[in-house]
Amino acid sequence: MYHLIRRFLFAFDPEKVHYFAMNMLRLGCRIPLLNLLIKKTFTPRNKNPLTLFNLNFSNRIGLGAGFDKNARYLHVLDTIGFGFVEIGTVTPKAQEGNEKPRLFRLEKDKALINRMGFNNEGAEVIAKRLAGWRKNNINSKLIIGGNIGKNKSTPNEEAWKDYEISFNMLHDYVDYFVVNVSSPNTPGLRELQEKNSLLNIFTVLQDANRVKKLPKPILLKISPDLCQQEIDDIIELTTEIKIDGLIVSNTTINRGNLKTSTEKINSVGPGGLSGLPLQKRSCEMLEYIYKKTNGSIVLIGSGGIFGGADAIEKIKAGASLIQIWTGFIYEGPSIIKKISKFIS
Predict the structure, then answer these.
(1) Which parts of the chain have pLDDT scores under 50?
(2) DSSP H helical segments within the chain, as ranges?
């Protein structure tokens, strides 16, 4: 059924149709009878709960950052059965992001290319929206992660200030944090994956976290384009300072081995590629990090998950949790229930 709907949706601009589809779902979820039907249709029965970071995940299937940037669709995402949702990437100040169009489909590869550029409404607005969600949904078991980044106008040497501002503003309303220094769509951002830069950012955040009444787990999202030495540096950092987990991985700038024509890829231009082409690389990184750390750090697998077999491959490689994004676009809300049958 969804594949017929997808054919219609894919006839339109990817970014515009994303908001159209989610707004329609949100409208449906506001009608009690429809909300009940949607929940019954899509929520997985075999939930396979898991406790990590003293957080009780109702299932292992999460939605990666970038889908619900401004925390507008939490009720919808809770209703269809996600165990956790990562909002953001959130920056201290609101920003428009990069020029449109900035989201593109590579249907032959089951992939997307985006150069969104951290478009979001800013930490203050999003914090207020999250506060409202918490107040009105006290019985929800949905785990919410806050993915934080720096504003485009902030120089790298002052990036730590942006991460600290968003961290403090969101702290009371999210269950865990993710430091995003691996998006390819903010100029110079990936330079912050360098060891000394990460050490600076995490030291500031952990100092701020330590004085909170209820400290929150802080994870790092890493790029699939890191070389082995850079991965080793990050592994070393996880023991040097308190990094609670790694998300493996963000989007890639690599364009190798794609089925889409070179002409079309060149016409799209720069951006981060997500989807099925990332499956192998993210699994390789998960397996390497898991073995190198003897499983001592929590790993969340992300990249190229389109069904249960892909999810199992991530878990076998060392992931405790998985995140989907592009697979959700291509496969629809039923992907959650389909995956849950494999990992229950």
Answers:
(1) none
(2) 2-9, 14-29, 32-42, 74-79, 123-136, 159-170, 195-210, 228-240, 262-268, 279-292, 308-317, 326-331, 335-343
